[in-house]
Amino acid sequence: MASAGSADSSPEINVVNLTFSHNSADSRVEPSLVDINISLPKGSRTILVGANGAGKSTLLQILAGKRLISKEGTLVLIKGKDVFRQYPEGVTFLGTEWAMNPVVRGDIVVEDFLNSVGGYRHKDRRDKLLDILDVDLDWHMHKISDGERRRVQLVMGLMADWDVLLLDEVTVDLDVLVRDDLLKFLKRDSEERGATILYATHIFDGLNEFPTHVAHMRLGSFVTLPTSWPFEDFSVAGPNTQLYGVALQWLREDRDFRRELEKKGRKVRGARKDDVPVDSETFYKKYDYSH
Fold first, then answer.
1. Per-residue model confidence as pLDDT tens digits over 246-259
2. Quick one: CATH architecture of 1-89+163-169+193-268?
3. By the 8 A CB rule, do 117 and 155 touch?
4. Cis bond leading into 211, ω under 30°?
5. 41, CA 20 to 30 Å: which among 138, 146, 234, 264?
Protein backbone atom coordinates (compact mmCIF):
# COMPACT_ATOMS: atom_id res chain seq x y z
CA MET A 1 0.00 0.00 0.00
CA ALA A 2 1.64 3.25 -1.13
CA SER A 3 1.24 6.71 0.27
CA ALA A 4 0.71 9.52 -2.21
CA GLY A 5 3.95 10.78 -3.63
CA SER A 6 6.07 7.95 -2.21
CA ALA A 7 7.42 7.17 -5.68
CA ASP A 8 7.32 10.70 -7.06
CA SER A 9 10.48 12.82 -6.85
CA SER A 10 8.69 16.07 -7.71
CA PRO A 11 5.23 16.06 -6.11
CA GLU A 12 2.59 18.50 -7.27
CA ILE A 13 1.71 19.40 -3.66
CA ASN A 14 4.40 19.16 -0.99
CA VAL A 15 4.06 20.20 2.66
CA VAL A 16 6.96 19.80 5.08
CA ASN A 17 6.99 20.48 8.82
CA LEU A 18 3.82 22.59 8.93
CA THR A 19 2.43 23.64 12.30
CA PHE A 20 -0.09 26.47 12.38
CA SER A 21 -2.07 28.30 15.06
CA HIS A 22 -4.74 30.92 14.44
CA ASN A 23 -3.44 32.75 17.51
CA SER A 24 0.28 32.09 17.69
CA ALA A 25 0.75 34.77 20.37
CA ASP A 26 -1.29 32.75 22.89
CA SER A 27 0.49 29.56 23.91
CA ARG A 28 -2.69 28.28 25.59
CA VAL A 29 -4.42 27.95 22.21
CA GLU A 30 -3.88 24.55 20.65
CA PRO A 31 -2.49 24.66 17.08
CA SER A 32 -4.97 24.04 14.28
CA LEU A 33 -2.35 22.01 12.41
CA VAL A 34 0.48 20.00 13.96
CA ASP A 35 3.55 18.69 12.12
CA ILE A 36 1.90 18.20 8.72
CA ASN A 37 4.01 16.39 6.12
CA ILE A 38 2.30 15.31 2.90
CA SER A 39 3.31 14.75 -0.70
CA LEU A 40 0.74 14.42 -3.50
CA PRO A 41 1.66 13.38 -7.06
CA LYS A 42 0.51 15.14 -10.19
CA GLY A 43 -2.85 13.85 -11.38
CA SER A 44 -3.92 12.52 -7.98
CA ARG A 45 -7.39 13.08 -6.54
CA THR A 46 -7.27 13.02 -2.76
CA ILE A 47 -10.26 13.01 -0.41
CA LEU A 48 -9.68 14.51 3.06
CA VAL A 49 -11.77 12.79 5.75
CA GLY A 50 -12.12 14.24 9.23
CA ALA A 51 -14.59 15.58 11.76
CA ASN A 52 -15.46 19.27 11.99
CA GLY A 53 -12.44 21.04 13.45
CA ALA A 54 -9.92 18.47 12.20
CA GLY A 55 -7.96 21.15 10.30
CA LYS A 56 -9.01 20.33 6.73
CA SER A 57 -10.17 23.84 5.83
CA THR A 58 -7.13 25.44 7.46
CA LEU A 59 -4.80 23.22 5.43
CA LEU A 60 -6.59 24.05 2.17
CA GLN A 61 -6.54 27.78 2.97
CA ILE A 62 -2.80 27.64 3.62
CA LEU A 63 -2.23 25.80 0.34
CA ALA A 64 -4.29 28.52 -1.34
CA GLY A 65 -1.96 31.17 0.12
CA LYS A 66 -4.73 32.65 2.26
CA ARG A 67 -2.91 32.22 5.59
CA LEU A 68 0.70 33.24 6.10
CA ILE A 69 3.23 30.82 7.58
CA SER A 70 6.38 32.31 9.06
CA LYS A 71 7.90 29.35 10.92
CA GLU A 72 11.44 28.60 9.79
CA GLY A 73 11.91 25.16 8.27
CA THR A 74 8.35 24.94 6.97
CA LEU A 75 7.76 24.32 3.27
CA VAL A 76 4.42 24.66 1.50
CA LEU A 77 4.95 24.07 -2.21
CA ILE A 78 2.63 23.66 -5.18
CA LYS A 79 4.18 22.82 -8.54
CA GLY A 80 7.55 23.34 -6.85
CA LYS A 81 6.80 26.96 -5.90
CA ASP A 82 6.39 28.50 -2.46
CA VAL A 83 2.72 29.45 -2.13
CA PHE A 84 3.58 32.58 -0.11
CA ARG A 85 6.50 33.97 -2.13
CA GLN A 86 5.93 32.88 -5.73
CA TYR A 87 2.39 31.58 -5.93
CA PRO A 88 2.11 29.27 -8.94
CA GLU A 89 -0.30 29.78 -11.80
CA GLY A 90 -3.06 27.28 -12.44
CA VAL A 91 -4.18 26.83 -8.82
CA THR A 92 -7.89 27.21 -8.02
CA PHE A 93 -9.37 27.31 -4.52
CA LEU A 94 -13.12 27.03 -4.03
CA GLY A 95 -14.51 27.40 -0.52
CA THR A 96 -17.87 27.96 1.11
CA GLU A 97 -17.32 31.58 2.18
CA TRP A 98 -17.71 32.85 -1.41
CA ALA A 99 -21.51 32.52 -1.38
CA MET A 100 -21.73 34.82 1.66
CA ASN A 101 -19.93 37.69 -0.06
CA PRO A 102 -22.39 40.59 -0.47
CA VAL A 103 -20.95 41.33 -3.92
CA VAL A 104 -22.17 37.99 -5.31
CA ARG A 105 -25.55 38.49 -3.65
CA GLY A 106 -26.19 41.75 -5.51
CA ASP A 107 -28.58 42.36 -8.37
CA ILE A 108 -26.40 41.19 -11.23
CA VAL A 109 -27.36 38.83 -14.04
CA VAL A 110 -25.35 35.59 -14.12
CA GLU A 111 -24.24 36.10 -17.75
CA ASP A 112 -22.89 39.57 -16.93
CA PHE A 113 -21.25 38.27 -13.77
CA LEU A 114 -19.40 35.48 -15.60
CA ASN A 115 -18.30 37.86 -18.36
CA SER A 116 -17.01 40.29 -15.72
CA VAL A 117 -14.60 37.60 -14.49
CA GLY A 118 -13.45 36.60 -17.99
CA GLY A 119 -16.03 34.02 -19.00
CA TYR A 120 -15.82 35.12 -22.63
CA ARG A 121 -12.16 33.97 -22.67
CA HIS A 122 -13.10 30.39 -21.75
CA LYS A 123 -16.27 29.94 -23.76
CA ASP A 124 -15.97 26.21 -24.48
CA ARG A 125 -15.32 25.15 -20.89
CA ARG A 126 -17.75 27.74 -19.56
CA ASP A 127 -20.56 26.43 -21.76
CA LYS A 128 -19.80 22.82 -20.83
CA LEU A 129 -19.99 23.72 -17.15
CA LEU A 130 -23.19 25.71 -17.63
CA ASP A 131 -24.78 22.54 -19.00
CA ILE A 132 -23.32 20.23 -16.33
CA LEU A 133 -24.32 22.53 -13.47
CA ASP A 134 -27.67 23.41 -15.05
CA VAL A 135 -27.17 27.17 -14.72
CA ASP A 136 -29.54 29.72 -16.24
CA LEU A 137 -27.60 32.69 -17.64
CA ASP A 138 -30.62 34.92 -16.99
CA TRP A 139 -30.68 34.27 -13.25
CA HIS A 140 -30.28 37.32 -11.02
CA MET A 141 -27.73 36.57 -8.30
CA HIS A 142 -29.80 38.14 -5.51
CA LYS A 143 -32.90 36.08 -6.35
CA ILE A 144 -31.45 32.57 -6.55
CA SER A 145 -31.02 29.91 -3.86
CA ASP A 146 -27.77 29.06 -2.09
CA GLY A 147 -27.48 25.91 -4.18
CA GLU A 148 -27.93 27.83 -7.43
CA ARG A 149 -25.44 30.45 -6.29
CA ARG A 150 -22.99 27.65 -5.54
CA ARG A 151 -23.41 26.37 -9.10
CA VAL A 152 -22.49 29.80 -10.43
CA GLN A 153 -19.38 29.81 -8.22
CA LEU A 154 -18.31 26.46 -9.63
CA VAL A 155 -18.76 27.64 -13.22
CA MET A 156 -16.70 30.73 -12.41
CA GLY A 157 -13.95 28.79 -10.64
CA LEU A 158 -13.63 25.88 -13.06
CA MET A 159 -14.06 27.51 -16.47
CA ALA A 160 -10.35 28.35 -16.80
CA ASP A 161 -7.96 25.40 -17.09
CA TRP A 162 -6.54 24.56 -13.66
CA ASP A 163 -3.60 22.36 -12.73
CA VAL A 164 -4.35 22.08 -9.01
CA LEU A 165 -7.87 22.28 -7.57
CA LEU A 166 -8.47 22.83 -3.84
CA LEU A 167 -12.09 22.13 -2.88
CA ASP A 168 -13.45 22.89 0.57
CA GLU A 169 -17.02 21.60 1.02
CA VAL A 170 -18.29 23.40 -2.10
CA THR A 171 -20.56 20.55 -3.20
CA VAL A 172 -22.60 20.61 0.01
CA ASP A 173 -25.39 22.76 -1.52
CA LEU A 174 -25.73 20.78 -4.75
CA ASP A 175 -28.49 18.31 -5.43
CA VAL A 176 -27.38 14.72 -5.94
CA LEU A 177 -27.73 14.72 -9.75
CA VAL A 178 -25.73 17.91 -10.31
CA ARG A 179 -23.10 16.78 -7.83
CA ASP A 180 -22.70 13.44 -9.60
CA ASP A 181 -22.34 15.11 -13.01
CA LEU A 182 -19.79 17.56 -11.60
CA LEU A 183 -17.67 14.83 -10.00
CA LYS A 184 -17.61 12.88 -13.26
CA PHE A 185 -16.47 16.03 -15.08
CA LEU A 186 -13.71 16.68 -12.52
CA LYS A 187 -12.50 13.09 -12.65
CA ARG A 188 -12.38 13.14 -16.45
CA ASP A 189 -10.63 16.53 -16.42
CA SER A 190 -8.04 15.22 -13.97
CA GLU A 191 -7.38 12.08 -16.00
CA GLU A 192 -7.17 13.83 -19.37
CA ARG A 193 -4.98 16.75 -18.28
CA GLY A 194 -3.06 15.26 -15.35
CA ALA A 195 -4.64 17.81 -13.02
CA THR A 196 -4.50 17.37 -9.24
CA ILE A 197 -7.42 17.63 -6.80
CA LEU A 198 -7.47 17.89 -3.01
CA TYR A 199 -11.05 17.74 -1.78
CA ALA A 200 -12.40 18.08 1.77
CA THR A 201 -15.98 16.90 2.13
CA HIS A 202 -18.47 15.38 4.56
CA ILE A 203 -20.61 13.83 1.82
CA PHE A 204 -19.27 10.42 0.75
CA ASP A 205 -22.19 8.95 -1.17
CA GLY A 206 -21.23 8.40 -4.80
CA LEU A 207 -17.54 9.12 -4.18
CA ASN A 208 -16.22 5.58 -4.31
CA GLU A 209 -14.89 5.79 -7.87
CA PHE A 210 -13.60 9.35 -7.62
CA PRO A 211 -10.38 9.40 -5.54
CA THR A 212 -6.96 7.98 -6.24
CA HIS A 213 -6.02 8.61 -2.59
CA VAL A 214 -7.82 9.02 0.74
CA ALA A 215 -6.48 10.63 3.92
CA HIS A 216 -7.69 10.99 7.51
CA MET A 217 -7.16 14.08 9.67
CA ARG A 218 -7.88 14.32 13.39
CA LEU A 219 -7.36 17.34 15.66
CA GLY A 220 -4.89 18.99 13.30
CA SER A 221 -2.80 15.95 12.39
CA PHE A 222 -2.87 13.14 9.85
CA VAL A 223 -3.90 9.80 11.33
CA THR A 224 -3.70 8.25 7.87
CA LEU A 225 -1.54 9.98 5.28
CA PRO A 226 -2.85 10.18 1.70
CA THR A 227 -3.01 6.50 0.78
CA SER A 228 -3.84 4.79 -2.51
CA TRP A 229 -7.55 3.99 -2.88
CA PRO A 230 -9.06 1.43 -2.72
CA PHE A 231 -7.14 0.28 0.35
CA GLU A 232 -5.31 -3.03 0.07
CA ASP A 233 -4.30 -3.17 3.73
CA PHE A 234 -7.26 -3.89 6.04
CA SER A 235 -5.34 -2.45 9.00
CA VAL A 236 -6.05 1.06 7.66
CA ALA A 237 -9.84 0.92 7.98
CA GLY A 238 -10.89 -2.69 8.41
CA PRO A 239 -12.61 -4.66 5.63
CA ASN A 240 -14.41 -1.60 4.26
CA THR A 241 -14.61 -1.44 0.47
CA GLN A 242 -16.86 1.63 0.34
CA LEU A 243 -15.57 5.11 1.12
CA TYR A 244 -18.73 5.86 3.11
CA GLY A 245 -17.98 2.93 5.43
CA VAL A 246 -14.36 3.99 5.84
CA ALA A 247 -15.35 7.57 6.67
CA LEU A 248 -18.00 6.42 9.15
CA GLN A 249 -15.53 4.20 10.97
CA TRP A 250 -12.87 6.91 11.11
CA LEU A 251 -15.31 9.51 12.40
CA ARG A 252 -16.51 7.14 15.14
CA GLU A 253 -12.88 6.59 16.12
CA ASP A 254 -12.34 10.36 16.19
CA ARG A 255 -15.30 10.84 18.53
CA ASP A 256 -14.13 8.05 20.84
CA PHE A 257 -10.60 9.49 20.84
CA ARG A 258 -11.89 12.95 21.77
CA ARG A 259 -14.06 11.56 24.58
CA GLU A 260 -11.04 9.81 26.06
CA LEU A 261 -9.24 13.15 26.04
CA GLU A 262 -12.22 14.74 27.77
CA LYS A 263 -11.86 12.23 30.60
CA LYS A 264 -8.29 13.49 31.01
CA GLY A 265 -9.26 17.15 31.21
CA ARG A 266 -10.08 18.33 27.71
CA LYS A 267 -13.12 20.62 27.46
CA VAL A 268 -16.24 18.44 27.46
CA ARG A 269 -18.87 18.74 24.74
CA GLY A 270 -22.55 17.93 25.05
CA ALA A 271 -24.93 18.28 27.99
CA ARG A 272 -23.56 19.25 31.40
CA LYS A 273 -23.89 16.42 33.90
CA ASP A 274 -24.30 18.45 37.09
CA ASP A 275 -27.63 19.74 38.41
CA VAL A 276 -26.39 23.20 39.41
CA PRO A 277 -28.10 25.83 37.23
CA VAL A 278 -25.77 28.03 35.21
CA ASP A 279 -26.02 31.80 35.59
CA SER A 280 -27.99 32.23 32.35
CA GLU A 281 -30.50 29.56 33.40
CA THR A 282 -31.00 31.23 36.81
CA PHE A 283 -31.50 34.63 35.19
CA TYR A 284 -34.00 33.58 32.51
CA LYS A 285 -35.91 31.27 34.84
CA LYS A 286 -36.69 34.25 37.08
CA TYR A 287 -38.49 35.98 34.19
CA ASP A 288 -40.19 32.93 32.70
CA TYR A 289 -43.96 33.61 32.81
CA SER A 290 -44.99 30.76 30.55
CA HIS A 291 -46.32 28.70 33.48
1. 999 999 999 999 98
2. 3-Layer(aba) Sandwich (3.40)
3. no
4. no
5. 234
